[in-house]
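Example record

Each entry pairs one chain with its bound ligand, adenosine-5'-diphosphate.
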Amino acid sequence: MLREVRHPGKGDKDIVELGMVDQVSVDGKRITVLLRFGEHRDPLTEYLVGSARAVLYRHTPAGAEIDVRAVAGRAVEDKPKKKTVNDLTLDEVNNVRHIIGIASGKGGVGKSTVAVNLAVALTRLGYRVGLADADVYGPSVPLMTGTEGAVPQALEENGSEVIFPIEKYGVKWMSIGYFAQPGQALIWRGPMACNALKQMILQVRWGVLDFLLIDMPPGTGDIHISLVGDIPMEGAVIVTTPQAVALSDVEKGVDMFRNEKINRRIYGLVENMAWFTPAELPENKYFIFGKDGGVKMAERFGIPLIGRIPIVQSIRESGDAGEPAALSSGPDGLAFLELARNLAEQTEKE
Ligand SMILES: Nc1ncnc2c1ncn2[C@@H]1O[C@H](COP(=O)(O)OP(=O)(O)O)[C@@H](O)[C@H]1O
Ligand SMILES: [Mg+2]
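Structure tokens for the complex follow.
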């Protein structure tokens, strides 16, 4: 009889067909019916409850007590309960050999440039590589790889969502930027940012990889501690520039990974913008920020200096054009290949 009640907002389907009749119970003279509504308030709630009550009055003997109630939220048995961030497992990163964070104490030192080019260079050496752009404040991987506007495919599997990375230049890319509207400011803070990041790494079907690089947010805050705690990150690479200011910031980055809460290995230091080389004089090196800041820093902390990347106009231009410099065979491309080789070597060491 409840099939007589139709939902005018849903193609006039009846409430039974729509799966809204959640429970019908009869206790003596009392008939109780629970109607299940969605998470959002349905403007027709009152109308449908009233209609159901009227139908029941019409079809039941006089004296029956009719109780029709609306309940909100999805029926429990309706669908398997969606997994929440806290239920995420490590299944998707189980086949990744090395998860390595690319960090710096400070923004603007070229962390993303190094991360993207290192990923491409490792691929050129024959490794299987993925990169997760975890910089919630300024995701730059879509621009640097020419994948802006790409929409990662998602599918539901056994009640949890799996996201597929974007593949280009032989690397699997994932960025929080793929989920934001162009120009939309990302205002995630604190726990929300942490959850989004965790999801963006642990729900991605990375498959079998030798390296999964994580372009970490700048700074040394809670996000980092939570990220390292939730993801089986083996260690980090720290990016710096030769300027003294950047160096003291990098010190904080180094301390963070050596902090007992995090305590992960630092595979090496990369000195970015180590010298300037004009395109027309590729043999010339101008150490405009000082010659051996990176070398000294590496010595002081006992961390190997695994890469020195020059400032070359083509590095910035290729980044802006979405074609990483590491694809080239010029001095810029070679500097990244050298870095990739050194990192691979470090990870083989105990
Ligand atoms: N070695 C380099 N030579 C030339 N430009 C560079 C180099 N490294 C980074 N840049 C440029 O500097 C800017 C900041 O780099 P980015 O990688 O976004 O820094 P971060 O991720 O640390 O904030 C970008 O415009 C980038 O193209
Ligand atoms: Mg960046």
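The longest strand covers residues 265-276.
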